[in-house]
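Reply to thread "Modeling small-molecule complexes from scratch"

Following up on the discussion above, here's a worked example others can learn from. I took a protein sequence and the SMILES for flavin-adenine dinucleotide and predicted the complex. Inputs first:
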Amino acid sequence: MDENNVRKSAVIVGASLSGLMAAIALARAGLQVTLLERTRAKPRSGAVLQVDSGERDRTLTAQILRKLASGGVKSVEAWSSVESRLHAEAEADPRINLHYDSGVHAVDQDVESAWVVTNNGEKYYGDILIGADGHRSMVRRHVDPHKPNATFAGYLIWVALVDEKDIPEEHRPTLNASRVAMLDGMGDFLLGSIVAGTDGSYAPGYRRLGWAWYDNTQNDLLRLLGCVEGNVVRHSLNAADIPKQTLIELAKQASVRWPEPWLTAILHSIHTRNLIGTPIAEYVPDRLVKGRIAIIGDAAHVLTPLTASGFNASLQDAAALADCVAEGIEGASAAGALLEYESKRLKSVRQIVQSGQSFSRSFGR
Ligand SMILES: Cc1cc2nc3c(=O)[nH]c(=O)nc-3n(C[C@H](O)[C@H](O)[C@H](O)COP(=O)(O)OP(=O)(O)OC[C@H]3O[C@@H](n4cnc5c(N)ncnc54)[C@H](O)[C@@H]3O)c2cc1C
């Protein structure tokens, strides 16, 4: 038996926050984990996350994951800071084999194992296979072929992260400014966050300002550029592809809507093309598991970022999964452990997505 074919093993598709947390939790439960990521190892920037949901973590695994992800700090965090902590932990664990540049194009299973085939032609086997491959999950297509796609919620969010040093001193937030601001515009709104610098410092001049502008007026542009097709989100609107006229219009709108320090942060992002338009999708799952294959994180449930619950739900998925496989996954017990995971998570994640849908129905177009 070669090293890709050992028993008591898991293959995880996607090494973003959900995939990393699942890998760490499953390795701690004693599994050998192969983690496959389509992209290269490079930090992404942009969004900020509420890492501490305020929810009490009932299991030890959830507590451990929360501590690792947050670095023990109760605050809003840059996505990249959370990712780099989890990445360092996964890299240091000898039970986890992390492969970048390894996009998966097929998954399947039989009574003995589950497997993936990568774009490089490699095949990896595991006793279980976990899809942590995000809102356009290909593993979800295997788990629920009748409901494979998340649907466009009718709006996008412009997001960016700006170094405080790039903002003139007179427009910087004060030292005791609230770290989170929710501002109403003209039928739209803005979520602003002050997060630590890359070195973890909150000293003035070293912080970063994250902003997320909810905008329901760009749907024609999203369809024209192929970001949305029918009611399916295909990809984000990357900075380089945003038409110049759209940026001019956004700058004009920002100037009459948003106060400092957010206005200067937004204008800086626009002038330096350091922003991304994320079309928002939603997915209420009917199932999370098929045999030896399960989905977690945004592959399993896609919700509006307004709920600020996507990360927390992903953490609870990873923790529940690890707790369910701890008793063993050899032979037929693999499918039993995954069914237990589904019974622990399905009702709750459906409710979380549905809680954000009333907002999307009123705001989306
Ligand atoms: C703008 C925005 C703001 C947000 N704000 C918040 C917030 O404030 N609070 C909160 O809790 N949540 C928030 N979220 C949600 C949160 O970021 C996610 O729920 C959480 O990070 C879990 O993501 P994930 O790892 O499941 O999916 P993703 O981050 O989408 O990762 C999927 C990974 O799988 C890889 N992949 C995909 N297909 C393949 C393949 N075929 N083969 C190999 N690899 C593949 C991708 O490259 C990617 O790395 C926000 C989301 C967005 C978009």
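What I'd highlight from this example: The pocket of flavin-adenine dinucleotide is lined by residues 13-19, 36-39, 47, 49-50, 103-104, 132-135, 138, 157, 159, 212, 278, 297-299, 305, 308-312, 314 (CB under 6 Å). The domain at 151-281 is CATH 3.30.9.60 (D-Amino Acid Oxidase; Chain A, domain 2). Questions welcome below.
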